[in-house]
Each structure stands twice: as structure tokens, then as C-alpha cells.
Design brief:
This protein has helices at about 90-95, 115, 165-170, 185-190, 200-215, and strands at about 75-80, 150, 175-180, 195-200, 220, 225-230, 235, 245, 250, 265. It is of the alpha/beta class and about 270 residues long. The strands form two sheets. Strands 4-3-2-1-5-6-7 form a seven-stranded mixed β-sheet.
Amino acid sequence: MARAGLFDVPGNERRPPRCRRALRLDIEPQLQRPPGGRGAHAPREPGDGSRGGGRRPLRRCPRIELRKDHEQFAVLEGVVAPLDRENVDTDAIIPKQFLKSIHRTGFGPHCFDEWRYLDPGYIGIDPASRKLDSEFELNRTRYDGASILLTRENFGCGSSREHAPWALEQYGIRVLVGSSFADIFFNNCFKNGLLPITLPTEVIDRLFDEAAATKGYRLTIDLEKQVVVTPSGEAIACAARRLITGKTGDISNDNFGSIKPTLTVVDRLPQ
């Protein structure tokens, strides 16, 4: 067959026709409207020929302001609850199953949930129906109504969720006193009505000993004098933040809780 040339393709065979210009064909011309005036530009397209004419106008998210509904104080005296644990993370402060709530309230009963209760907790379960763990420090009656939480180093580590300060504040804590705090948690406290105060480790150790030996142990936080006062009258210079308003050099000791978004942090007081 090769000799017979059966597979030879002649050079003059017909080729497919070239693409031609498409013709307009009106299937039902009786339905066509009469021609009208043309617009200056194509619909939903900008006049300068650039792209993006069909996009929606940019809408900014509403400005989020810091909470201003916290009770203000210049001097706070309260019962101290010691939490003698290091590296307490935000998952321990408020477990992840309670983060599904769409509301910003209701976290107080679940603060330290996995430590306070013997059974697992979930959204919708009445905390009054659950069994408390009597071995957990904060469940002891001597610490009822505590507004000052004494902590160890690196408190608030872990994720950056703001639910942790919400839970502590709704539990009744107003001031945290410890040797160190996680950076993100430290800043979140000021946005949510909590005052974290750092003191030297040796001072924290002594406060833990005094709180364990004295029932109803109380501390006084004086923002005006920037000190922590013990029951014996000892005034400890604290590292509580001082706030500065928008004006240069205009330093004020405004009551904590009236924090506005314009406030800026300045240097801590010397130990």
C-alpha cells in the first residue's frame, strides 16, 4: 500500500473554511424595539475606561470604641484571692466551648470552669446544677466576693482572645496583682475594665504567704498615690499604669474605668 501511495495526502485537497465575520440574524424581528439614544458609556462601567465600575462602594466597618461602662475607682479595697499557679493560659481562664456565644456577657460563671467544677461544662447548662471542686482555691468561702486576684508569673498566656478579661471582670475581679503577665492579655485588660499590676517576685511571694495565713486578707489599690497598701499599712510602689491625655505633658490620674481610645501609655513607675 505504501508503494501504491494510498497514504499520500495530496497538497491540493480542500481545507476547512476560514472563520468569517459573524452576521447578525434576527430570529423574530417583529419583537425588536426601535433604536434609541445611546448612553455616553457602557452601563456599570466608569467613564475613564478603568476597571471596577461594577464594584460596590467601599463601606468602612463601624468604629469600635473601648468600653466606658465600668465602675470607676481611684481607690479600691478588696478581698484577695490567691491563685498559686504559673503560666495560667486563657484556655484555663475561659474554656473554648464557651466562646461560641454570640453575646459578650455570661462568661463570669464559667471563669476557670475546668478547675471550679468536677463535671464538664457546656453552654446552656445551669452552673447552679453542677458540682463544685472544693479543692480549687477560688471555691473556698474565705475568698467569696474577692475583687483582687493574686497571680504568679506569665498569667494570661496562650491565645489573644478578649474573652479571658471578660470572664474575669464578670466574675468580679477588678485588679490583678502578679509578677508578670502575657503581653497581649496585659493590653486586653485595659480595654475591658481590669487593672493588671506587676510587682517583684519576692513581693508576690510574701503576699501569697500573708494571704494564706490571714483569713479575709485585703489589699488597697491607690491609683492616686500609685501604691498597693497591705493590712499592716505598708505601701508598696506598684507598676500600675499612669494615663496621659492627648495633650503633651498633661498627665492625669483619672479614675480607672474611664479610659478613652485617645489615651496613651507612658512609663511605669520605678520600683
